[in-house]
Amino acid sequence: MIRVFVEAVSLLGPGLAGWDEASAVLAGLRPYAPAPAVLTASPLLPPAERRRSVPTVRLAMAVGAEAMERAGRDPETVATVFASSSGDPDTLHTILETLASDEPEISPTRFHNSVHNAPAGYWSIATRSRQPSASLSSHDESFQAGLLEAVTQVATAGWTVALIAYDLPYPEPLNSVRPIAGAFGTALVLTPQPTGRSFARLDLTLDRTDMPATRMADAALEALRAGNPAGRALPLLGALARVASGDGAETVVLDLPPGSHLVLQVGPPC
Amino acid sequence: MSIVSSLGAGQDATLDALRTGRGGLKPCRFETVTLDTHIGEVAGLDGVRLPDRLAGYDCRNNRLAELALCQDGFDTAVAAARERYGAHRIGVLLGTSTSGILSAELAYRQRDKDTGALPSAFSFATTHSTGSLAEFVRVRLGLEGPAFVSSSACATTSKVFASAARMVAAGLCDAVVVGGADSLCLTTLYGFHSLELVSPTPCRPFDADRRGVSLGEGAGFALLERADPRPAPGTVHLLGAGESSDAHHMSTPHPEGLGARLAMERALTAAGLEPGDIDYVNLHGTATTYGDAAEDRAITGLFGTRTPVSSTKGYTGHTLGAAGIVEAIISVLTLRAGLIPGSPQTRTLDPALRSRYLQANETGRMDRVMTNSFGFGGSNSALVFGWAA
């Protein structure tokens, strides 16, 4: 079992505009009303990078910045783990279209925006953070991969880590072969020891017994969980919302194929 | 551990090339590409066949991985480890920058003229998807531990060593298959061309007349296990890993090499070593004007001007997401062989660079070597390997 503490959580998704507004929905206290998420370029970025930022960068930076602010942390001191099933979908589509044309010259900005770790690069520039940063991918289990990496960094290196997960739909024709439901991002700030800001603890075990993944009670939230790799975080966010509002500990199960699960005991920090 | 690059398949072919000065760069004839450049292409990938049950994963990148898995007894060594630890106790943490994107590039040429749809044979999840490499290798090796891809551009297959070491330290795995594969594609060839970073001649790291990178492809794997308290003679250990971010620019390194130096310092700290303990540094050294200058500043600032350094990208080309594992394995091979590799096309050292850059091979016993990998987004990683104490 690995124990880490949660200082802050954030999210941005359809009808889920930030933790203050969304936590009551996730805790099941208010009905969920989906509406398209609005992505804006981060004010933390210098003007040139702000102009060049693409949807994945906007989404990742928005949830990262919200979590850092809620934790009261200077991002310069925080390591980061970015998790997403893909590089920027719009950028990849445009590059693929260009390369298939008679004029396969792609723009340099588009090329550097196509790398999977583009959000990590923009984040480092915006926050002036030279801390280690990972950018991970594991198709539908990308959030789980990021959580494993973040938790092992906290537990073995003793770092404070921001886990930033995000996934966005592709334009056609890729959307038909790889449908992703909505734009959804979330971030968690994790520490090895409880701090004045800690509001929850996570006890993580890798389990091989047969148990179903935790689902969302609301059908529309469940569709977001099942349809967006970063949305796989929703059951954990729901448990964190309930713990934050004073409820007791609960267990969340996330799939980790083949045959494993991440079992998370989510409870008050002490 | 196993390795494949344009130098050939396997450790022996790689070491032989370094000993004899035989480079792998040739004029670019890849696909429909019309760029005037040299590339390090792996021969024979078109003839590599994945096992029938894994045919759905067929793409250039997974073929390259398959070729590497079959070298140097790697798949047999993993099978033995599987018996020892159990399939679920072995993780698979691999790096790639572009995975099987070549499959998507080809599929986009075959879109339906009326509907725009991609051809039905195109399988996104098993080829283009960034995570497909780890999934393919995990299934191919019959493993069931945590498996994911790290994609931090050209630092990524170096960074997986650090992730794997943490995974073992946390007790989530007993062993981890690390490494990865990055194969040639139009995206990176035209992408580096757009940045005016592609050299018309075979690349010349640290040369006064260097004119950019030669792109290449490569793959390699290593089985990382918890250190034996009584290691067998000749065992090589990962002594330390260091990671950092530049906080400077998306595609240009920090001019003073601050992020690079921080990664090297962190690797030394993790290993409990001083700069003077390192006998050779295998540089990132891509032969770009700014990149080599920044790394030289970082090296001379930390090590001074006496530690021998060189880049082996004049041999292999820049294998991008595979550079970390290709050069980690080259570093271990040179440690074992007592061979410090020179730099084939580097003729006139840039007088502005002050590192002790080796143009010709040197021989002698080494105890500890460092290898650097830096990537877009300002991602930096350094590894230290040495004889088990």
From TrEMBL, chain A:
Superkingdom as given in the UniProt entry: Bacteria
Xref: Pfam families: Ketoacyl-synt_2 (PF13723)
Positions of the Beta-ketoacyl synthase-like N-terminal domain: 33-197
InterPro entries, alphabetized: Ketoacyl_synth_N, Thiolase-like
Protein name: Beta-ketoacyl synthase-like N-terminal domain-containing protein
Originating organism: Azospirillum picis
